[in-house]
Write a structure and sequence with these properties.
mainly alpha; single chain; elongated
């Protein structure tokens, strides 16, 4: 498996990415991982962190698109792409 394939987390849900990231942090904090493996899992953790940030940003954008009626209640949402 290539390095880029090992770091590809684009298909992960937010919850799955966070769970794996928490697992990586726990392993690194224990300190019982060899140096080479520590570097590899740290890189994967960075990829997971960036993926989570992307998903959170998309969710924030969707929330901002919620339209409110005059009473302040949501009428619906607009797609992110404006269609």
């Amino acid at each position: 498996m290539s390095e880029s394939a090992k770091l590809d987390v684009s298909g992960y849900s937010f919850e799955k990415a966070v769970a794996e990231l928490e697992s990586i942090v726990a392993r690194l904090e224990r300190g019982d991982v060899a140096l080479d493996e520590s570097i590899a899992i740290y890189e994967r953790g960075e990829a997971l962190k960036k993926h989570c940030e992307t998903l959170l940003s998309a969710a924030e954008n969707r929330i901002e698109k919620i339209r409110l009626d005059r009473a302040g209640k949501p009428q619906g949402t607009e797609p992110l792409d404006g269609q």
